[in-house]
Amino acid sequence: MAFGNAAAERRAIEMTYDGLCTVTEFRDVKDPNTGRTTPKPVVVLRDQPCALSQTSLSSARRTATDNTIDYDAKLFLSPDVTVKAGSRIRVTQHGMDLEFDQTADPFRYPTHQEILLKRAGRA
Question: What is d(CA 62, CA 36) in angstroms, rounded to the nearest whole number?
Answer without folding.
Answer: 41
